Amino acid sequence: MNYSSFFKTINFIYLRSKAKLFFPSMKNLMYCIALLCSTTFVFAQNESNSNPIIIKLPTTTLLSKVVAVKEVEIPIKAQPEVQIDIMAEDWDTSVYNPYKSSLVQFPIQLQFTDTTYASPVLHKKIITSRYGWRKGRAHQGIDIDLATGDSVVSVLDGIVRFAGYSYGHGNTVVVRHYNSLETTYAHLSHIAVKPKDSITKGGYLGKGGNTGNSRGSHLHFVTRYKGENIHPEYLFEFSPTNAIRAKELWVTQQWAHPRFHNSRLLSDIEVLTSEEAALAKIVEKNKIYVVRKGDTLYDISKRNNLAISEICNSNGIKKTQPLKVGQKLILELL
Length: 334
Known about the structure:
The protein has 334 residues and is of the alpha+beta class. It folds into three domains: 71 residues, no CATH class; 167 residues, Glucose Permease (Domain IIA), CATH 2.70.70; 46 residues, Roll (Membrane-bound Lytic Murein Transglycosylase D, Chain A). It is built from seven helices and 19 strands. Strands 4, 7, 9, 10, 11, 13, 15 and 16 form an eight-stranded antiparallel beta sheet that branches. Strands 8-14-12 form a three-stranded antiparallel beta sheet, with no helix packed on it. The chain has a two-stranded antiparallel sheet with strand order 1-2. The protein starts with a helix and ends with a strand.
């Protein structure tokens, strides 16, 4: 960095002191100090180092009589780290899910800079339907009670990726956050933002409603990472504290697939805060099923909320292959 202007100012002050013209009055004293500090401040704004600048004042007899301070320390605030460009990959403002061809490797690491989030509704959060299996179908978010016209806000800072009508969800806003997590706000009666709008935590998105496939006004709230749904209550405490469960979370398939949860029950949350813990949990939760007389792949898949294709892939067998009594099958639950 070029400090020539800075040192010119120092040299100017020093030369005036040598000419015995330095500080003829208290007014000039304050002027020079202000000039020195303002010059240094300019450099402090552009300095990436957080170490302070220490200025040693000229040791003239006249200066020592006026000011007892021999040096000035000016703190420098480091510039914040540059955020990643969250619009660089899979950015499509015309569709709800631009990640259809993406493959996510579990466990997923999610990092947060905040310890709290903004409640998506401004009144008490009442969950009317949770993440999980519901009436034979996957409910891939949570439903929060509201009245049509109630304000809906973003839970975290981010950029609006989608704002429009989505089949089933009705009027919908999707916000992509700076850790690549996306949050969805569905069934709105009014959308107040447009794609590429920057949104702060608690920023207004629109009004709640009953659009799309909805039986009564409510907010359908979804959390997704690169197209993979994540149980919102694994990430956020839906309580008055509005706490994010941890600054670093590892998401296994247990917290990504609704089949492991019941939409009418509160899931037993066990937060995994390291990759080692997540991998250990995956090994622990893999289930070995011993085939009994009369079992079919269809029966086993139905009892364990697993697709037949998943069972076949885990065990290297074909759908048409007959099962043998006593045969052991791996049912990957995470």
